Amino acid sequence: MCRRPASPTESENLSGDSTEIYIQIVTSSGRTIPVPANILASASTVFESIISRPRKHRSSEKSIPIAGVPCDAVVVFVGFLYSNRCAEEDMEKYGIHLLALSHVYLVPKLKSQCTKALIQRLTIENVTDVLQLARLCDAPDLYLKCMKLVSNKFKIVEQTEGWKFLQNNDPFFELEILQFIDETESRRKVSRKQRKEQSLYFELSEAMECLEHICTEGCINVGPNDVVPRKNRAPCNKFSTCNGLQLSIQHFANCKKRVNGGCVRCKRMWQLFKLHSSICELPDSDCKVPLCRRFKMGGGEEMKNKKEKERWGLLVKKVVVARATSSLLLSKRKRVEEEAGTGACGEVNDNHNHVIRKLIC
Ligand SMILES: [Zn+2]
Ligand SMILES: [Zn+2]
Ligand SMILES: [Zn+2]
Questions:
Q1: If you measure from the C-alpha of residue 261 to the centroid of ligand 2, how many angstroms do you get, rounded to a whole number?
Q2: pLDDT tens sequence across 98-113
Q3: I want to staple 110 with a disulfide (CB 3.0 to 4.6 A). Which of 11, 102, 186, 307 is the partner?
Q4: What is the value of pTM for the model shown?
Q5: Residue-range domains of the chain with CATH
């Protein structure tokens, strides 16, 4: 049973113009809804082309059957053609039918409203049905949302009736969905790996900053001999990295095994000095970081082969980019910190242990 008229009056000419042509929309239940031809033609090019087709008998009234959807959905559809609006409750009840109608009759505004409404109403239970509809109706946003939901909740979705029905009736589409899930998982793995790598470059870039800060300004435990210790200042703002680096520098200065003796910790510190030298732009005489000059003169560890050289070059490039990025990202924060009176420079306390001089320069 249809519930209400599509327009204020179905049987009368709304404008009172006796020359206005009416088209009869015929629903699946046999109900006819008269709609002015100009309303239909201006809302939909499909209706426009149906209306403009020549009729067999000029006097015969033109009718357009809309079957396959409930009568009330057609009523709501016709209402939209008049007003460009659709009540929430109608969207709730007939969203999927309205999407199909908007696709078949090319009503883009309704299609976009249906897409948004259906995205908001997606559930594990309805996602497979909506996904199939989105594919049939060429609604890419809705399709992608459905695919993502299926992909994220696949273990639960595959238990639903909708999924079982799809499996039995459209194995090709099932395969398409499974491929999407597979590709999504691979993409996630790649982006996890990239994030991990990215964070390594940021850590190295921070270590480079700390190394320069330790060797020029000095920090709590390590600093150059010519820096006068300043008392009672808080640790620098990268203290967790800075402190670890200071411990490594102290170890590097005092270790008996050293790099050639196979000490892993010394080897790591050696690499950090080398990395500094690769990104250092200061003239030799101005840089206070140990070994910088020696590496720049080629006195450091030689690269074993071309591949290793390339890998090192790439690492240096990535660290430089990470450094530039982090300085851009942090510039605002730094400004705020500087205004608040906390600089990046650390203080050297009374018990400071200046070890840089002990390193091989
Ligand atoms: Zn520090
Ligand atoms: Zn060591
Ligand atoms: Zn340097």
A1: 8
A2: 999 999 999 999 999 9
A3: 102
A4: 0.58
A5: 1-8+19-121 (3.30.710.10), 197-334+345-358 (1.20.1020.10)
